[in-house]
Amino acid sequence: MDQTTVRQLLDDVRENRVSPESAADRLRTLPFEDIGFAKLDHHRRLRLGLPEVIYAAGKTPAETAEIFARMVAHGGNVLATRASEEHAAAVRERVPGAEFHARGRTICLIQDSTERGKGEIAVLCAGTSDLGPAEEAVVTARVMGNRVRLSADVGVAGLHRLLAQKELLATARVFIVCAGMEGALPSVVAGLVAAPVIAVPTSVGYGASFEGVTALLAMMNSCAPNVTVVNIDNGFGAAYVASMINRL
Amino acid sequence: MDQTTVRQLLDDVRENRVSPESAADRLRTLPFEDIGFAKLDHHRRLRLGLPEVIYAAGKTPAETAEIFARMVAHGGNVLATRASEEHAAAVRERVPGAEFHARGRTICLIQDSTERGKGEIAVLCAGTSDLGPAEEAVVTARVMGNRVRLSADVGVAGLHRLLAQKELLATARVFIVCAGMEGALPSVVAGLVAAPVIAVPTSVGYGASFEGVTALLAMMNSCAPNVTVVNIDNGFGAAYVASMINRL
Amino acid sequence: MDQTTVRQLLDDVRENRVSPESAADRLRTLPFEDIGFAKLDHHRRLRLGLPEVIYAAGKTPAETAEIFARMVAHGGNVLATRASEEHAAAVRERVPGAEFHARGRTICLIQDSTERGKGEIAVLCAGTSDLGPAEEAVVTARVMGNRVRLSADVGVAGLHRLLAQKELLATARVFIVCAGMEGALPSVVAGLVAAPVIAVPTSVGYGASFEGVTALLAMMNSCAPNVTVVNIDNGFGAAYVASMINRL
Amino acid sequence: MDQTTVRQLLDDVRENRVSPESAADRLRTLPFEDIGFAKLDHHRRLRLGLPEVIYAAGKTPAETAEIFARMVAHGGNVLATRASEEHAAAVRERVPGAEFHARGRTICLIQDSTERGKGEIAVLCAGTSDLGPAEEAVVTARVMGNRVRLSADVGVAGLHRLLAQKELLATARVFIVCAGMEGALPSVVAGLVAAPVIAVPTSVGYGASFEGVTALLAMMNSCAPNVTVVNIDNGFGAAYVASMINRL
Amino acid sequence: MDQTTVRQLLDDVRENRVSPESAADRLRTLPFEDIGFAKLDHHRRLRLGLPEVIYAAGKTPAETAEIFARMVAHGGNVLATRASEEHAAAVRERVPGAEFHARGRTICLIQDSTERGKGEIAVLCAGTSDLGPAEEAVVTARVMGNRVRLSADVGVAGLHRLLAQKELLATARVFIVCAGMEGALPSVVAGLVAAPVIAVPTSVGYGASFEGVTALLAMMNSCAPNVTVVNIDNGFGAAYVASMINRL
Amino acid sequence: MDQTTVRQLLDDVRENRVSPESAADRLRTLPFEDIGFAKLDHHRRLRLGLPEVIYAAGKTPAETAEIFARMVAHGGNVLATRASEEHAAAVRERVPGAEFHARGRTICLIQDSTERGKGEIAVLCAGTSDLGPAEEAVVTARVMGNRVRLSADVGVAGLHRLLAQKELLATARVFIVCAGMEGALPSVVAGLVAAPVIAVPTSVGYGASFEGVTALLAMMNSCAPNVTVVNIDNGFGAAYVASMINRL
Amino acid sequence: MDQTTVRQLLDDVRENRVSPESAADRLRTLPFEDIGFAKLDHHRRLRLGLPEVIYAAGKTPAETAEIFARMVAHGGNVLATRASEEHAAAVRERVPGAEFHARGRTICLIQDSTERGKGEIAVLCAGTSDLGPAEEAVVTARVMGNRVRLSADVGVAGLHRLLAQKELLATARVFIVCAGMEGALPSVVAGLVAAPVIAVPTSVGYGASFEGVTALLAMMNSCAPNVTVVNIDNGFGAAYVASMINRL
Amino acid sequence: MDQTTVRQLLDDVRENRVSPESAADRLRTLPFEDIGFAKLDHHRRLRLGLPEVIYAAGKTPAETAEIFARMVAHGGNVLATRASEEHAAAVRERVPGAEFHARGRTICLIQDSTERGKGEIAVLCAGTSDLGPAEEAVVTARVMGNRVRLSADVGVAGLHRLLAQKELLATARVFIVCAGMEGALPSVVAGLVAAPVIAVPTSVGYGASFEGVTALLAMMNSCAPNVTVVNIDNGFGAAYVASMINRL
């Protein structure tokens, strides 16, 4: 994957600095750190240019703190998502400067505040109940080095609230739009802007909202062509892609 | 219905041969006309104040024509829905004045053009592909004695087209809103009007639209409280209820 | 949306009382009150003629109480739905006169008891387990200024109980029918009345009732044409639409 | 399975009339006739006391005719279900007396018209479109030796049509109730009778009827306890069970 | 039911104060006892010949005890299903003789032990985890006056256990077969017996068993024609129908 | 939406060049062309900077040709998707230069070949059966002014085929990845690249592929964070968003 | 993947027989043949030890014939699945010796009849309608070098037919069991044998069989632990895995 | 099932050592031990050559301990799956040597450590969250007498981690691959190995992962032909089949 490294390796073989056997091994094994219950992919940061992120939900507080601390030691910003207060407490014991954002359930440490995005990312959400995924998106985008603006409670049943965000609609470079229930907001926003819209269905609603499935399906069927969709409540993923786009 | 029977019954009441109470009971347990493959409920028109309607889809052209003709003979307007060209041809052989509306798949004969609705019914549809159910609604509402106005191609990804219908939005007494794909239009319309909105999911779309199921689910989860929903492509049912409301 | 206001604004521009820039701004921004975690739409009451309602489920007791109190200050009736005892306690500390209805999970304050509906709204429910959504509908309809009558436990497997409600069936202007399990009651009621029936599927049942989905689907497929449907357990929405209809 | 046969066999072994080896073989192999593409279970008629039935849908006309003819040769009544006109033509070439009932798609030959049921089986259907499965049930029940009465077009949205069948409701020994759309008829019938009700969901409807799935689910959730359910459009199965019950 | 009213009505007929016809009508539109939160249908016992049953799941212990006690006062056997220990405690305070069966979650009082069924009902279940619905069926059938035999842990992956029940398979008059997971047992049993099989899907399993939905679907598709199906875990309904059949 | 136009309009009002009434009207009506069965939004090209596209599936060949021709007259590139041979024939009669690409079902006319994208868009597909949506994406991206490279038949069960595309993986600016069946390719590609991946589930497969639903769900759950998803077979939408990104 | 080749290549680099650049290239590109619309993986035969197979369903007859002919040229047995008569005709024009099996929809050419499996593979199917996938499995297994025995029409509702296959049940090394409808046969077979059972759900059935989904779900939930499952109608996949197992 | 036993029995009958009646009985009843709430099938170990396993989830700790102890007494290895800490405590009181593996929720006692498998079983899992089912598979395979190797955290979004397991991929005889989310790992592994792959979908994920259903569906649609699938989180079943295969 790193053409230079591969050629260097092959030059080393030709020059007898490396045996063919060990070269064959190294060609197969990119660097990662095996800590027993997980394989930390520090190389990922180099390879993809974006920090590895800890998905805390399936891990114990102790495991999360261990991984978090090792990542901090490798430099760069570190982010844990789907974290509980218990995860946060464990992490902050190891890394006192880490911040916990309860609504979006994220823990982060910003060691590098370079702005990498070329414009602003707008995060809109339909109702106050959608703020969880929206804030996960906001924190993620900030950790990835972007300017972000959040506009909440701009659902389609009161269009004037959305239309009042005209300046934001006109200037942001990428849009992340979170909505539960009927999931209509991304279509409406996408019709008003000339930029990619990443739709985040949220699990907000009851009955036939099926914990976000209805919103997801609605967004997949958007009549606006500039909409793509991520998983339910996946504010992180939306912000990750938005960051990649905003760096272009 | 047997007009003679009803008169006889009322005579009996006048002559004290039947008590008013038992007459009231008998009026409830109602006569209908059995023609072998169906039981025609001519009384329904009196009981519900609205014409019985023929659902042609499961019937042969001959059966449809037979029922249509018998209903015509009982007076009032007659409507057949989900009709094919073959149904229409068979009906028009028996009832030459009957009209066939191909896009909405309706056959109708208007024998009584009294306007019964007190205001106007608005029918809006998101795209040109939604015109089928929309026109079924328009014809049904007309047969039921309403003034109707249709506004097509006002989907949410181009809000200005919808906002341009301001006068219609401000004046109609009931709204029928047809949309497929993400089914967002009823929510947006409902936020703009102070009247009941009847949402008709349409089978327009592909892939994860699931032949209208996504639109149906989205509409069930509308964040606007003045929305109720009927079955997929059920323009007829929407107009039937709208007519009832418009007579109030 | 308020034609007079728009014209006045444009007159003001012509007369130089308002600059074009600020007029452009005002045209975009209808009045709402931003309290940080939500945008209160007091204008809605004027615009739609019906009170804004607080959906308490996703909000903390403190947030709910804050919004409730602000709405009380703007006058008119105030309603919170999906409220817990904790929500109620917090609201009543701020607004001592507010009532909590536990079964239907509503908090309300009636400051204006004008009767606005022109007739009576009937609320029927199939079993005693359906009383939750039914009572949500009853309270909502009352807050909206309607006379309401509730008839419980009239499910279709014991038709005589339903037929005994003959007077109510004959006189109400709009019907709200709540049923779980097979969701058959709205179809039967709709066949007996000449008025709109709003069907509320409830999450009552087990196994293949799928928390109300079976009832919802059954109601969408009603063989009676005067039935429209709202989301599972959405007694509030049903009453909201019924109120709009009852004012016509 | 035939205790007598087993004992006879073992007696034969004790008496050395049969070797243990061949007895072991015979114990494993109950009589059926292998005709290459199918194993005809003539034993079934004896074992269950009811004729084997040919499910024609997956078979060629020639195969169907072959099996039909072989069954005729074994005596008793023969029935083929899900048969097309092509199947019927092929069968009647081999068995000229066989009758084809197009609406219910059955081919039958009644060689034994003994009445075996002790009472009458009632078959009710909600609309004229449900007549297909209803007639499959009627023919099946007749082939099985029952008196059957069919009452069509008695759907729940016009209760008076159903209540007019009072005599049938009071006297039949088992009920088969076919309905599509919301599938409510079995619940209503079951509340009016003191007998088992076998519900047959039909694929009648459109949109969210999902080809009978909604009716099936509704019937599974019947609030009446005397309802059991068979597969969509399975008039045959309903009549088969009804026949077994009617023989008790 | 109001015994006095019935007698009065019959007196009126004898004295020619009421015609037999209208008396017959009034007997159909039936009295019930309204206790506020429910309408007790004591007449049901006469009408259907089977006791009314309390579905405790949606009721408080106090409500359950109240209804249970009133039913006891009317005589006959009384049954409450889906009851918790709390329900049982409340009932037994009012009706000390009531029995609670924890596994099947039933409370019952047998005041009338007449055997009404003409044969034996067999209840089979696939695994020990299916014993809950199976025992609900056993208790229900006993309350309804039947002899019942239960055979547990006879799942299809160890056929010899099932085949060992040969005597039961040969003699029972109706079969109730409970199975979760792949729900195959009813098909296998039905192939071995010449009697109606009522299949009860259970919520036993994990993953793609979908809390009994897979078993339900499998049973609906049984290749044996003598199978009908009730809702998931509905041992009560199965026994109710089996009782009706066993009385024939 | 065009701030300059709005201010100009208001200036005109102040200067009495435009009456307030007509200004109010114009503020509501952005330019679109109403041709009866559709409202052509030529303004869209200006507003979003991308051509309006004709979704031919629900339109007749004549309607499609009419709209296509009008769009050609307004300049810029024109694209019709989901087009049949009949659509193509009708269009080419009006616009002889239009090209039809049968596999991707697109008709296009390129009047402006300016390259607008800043890099290359890669389109990968898992199997040869996925070529339909892939080619729809390729044509769309070209019409929108991008360089595009297609690499087919690189499914995950033969990883070496994918890894052989190393140069493309390293250089493209945006990736469109089409896959049916298990839909795994986008995850694998996303792990190998440092760019946004737009996943297009295709309807390729059978049985439990559910016409693309399985692939869609798999893609929504990608363990790679740089994946967003569009509707099944929606190569057009993927390319539309990719074009927007590639212009940044 | 071929360690020897990799080492040889690296030795070549050390010995200057190959330049590092071209070695880097070769390391990425395993041999496959690009014929435009597909990448033929002749290497696969070597790598996995089993023939590549052509999935004809999404390919034209000409494409299928082209690929088939090229594969024949590389030696070994060749198989095309999901083939129509048209595919077969096109192939046989190029490869006259190819056989077409219509029921299982396979085209094959056996150039190498070495028996590679160590035992016998048993293929059982529940009904005659399941013969399609069963024969696909039989042909596939033969092409892969196995002895195969097929036993049809041994469904669970007539257990004696299955038990009569005792010798086959006792001796086969791997079992492939095809069933539609309730999909119970694999569980029953698995309880009778001490070998792996590969279950193939078939699309046989109607109504709630959902084209094989019910059978698939049932098989996933088998109470027998020696069952694994493949996709609906995937006789090919079952035989492929069975072949791998039979070679061990 | 044991031909020798059957012949012996029949010889005994011929020699009058056993009466025909008791032979008939014994032919029906294979040995199992009835302990009231369950029928222990000790014969199974002989019949299938593999230990019976206790599914603890639906059993009380006391029941589980009772069965476990009885099985220990019959010799061989004993395994309980889906066990909680409470189950483990109860078992270890009766069988102190039993081991509890918390992550995979298994209790086991190895009394016979004979290696019965002929090669190694590889267990791979996509993420650390999939370790539960993976460890259930590992313990099961060991109890069944296999060498097992586990490789965790080798998900497809970081292919280098998987490719680093080259030696394991090349040598294992059977593969068990556990993955949640998009479930892509089995396809990728299957493309790299020449051995059967048993895919275990896990309930890891959120939103549209539907607790493992998405992974299950994806695996059913694997484009690699050497994949079969077991139920969600069914590490036990996968290992059971893998053990059978590994003994061949």
Q: Major β-sheet of chain A, in short?
A: 5 strands, parallel
| Strand element count of chain A | 11
Specify the structural class of chain A: alpha/beta
Alpha-carbon distance between the two ends of chain A? 21 Å
Largest interface: A-F, 34 and 34 residues
Poorly predicted runs of chain A are 28-32
Based on CA atoms alone, the radius of gyration of chain A comes out at 21 Å
Strand order of the largest sheet of chain A: 8-7-9-10-11
How would you characterize the overall build of this protein?
- Eight copies of one chain form a homooctamer.
- Residues 28-32 of chain A have low confidence and may be disordered.
- Chain A has 248 residues and is an alpha/beta fold.
- The first copy, chain A, is globular, with a radius of gyration of 21 Å.
- In chain A, strand 10, helix 10 (213-220) and strand 11 form a beta-alpha-beta unit.
- Chain A has helices spanning 3-14, 20-28, 42-48, 61-73, 85-94, 131-143, 159-163, 166-171, 185-192, 213-220, 235-247, and strands spanning 33-34, 39-40, 53-55, 78-81, 99-101, 106-109, 120-125, 147-151, 174-179, 197-201, 227-229.
- Chain A contains eleven helices and eleven strands.
- At the D-E interface, strand 11 and helix 11 of D face strand 11 and helix 11 of E.
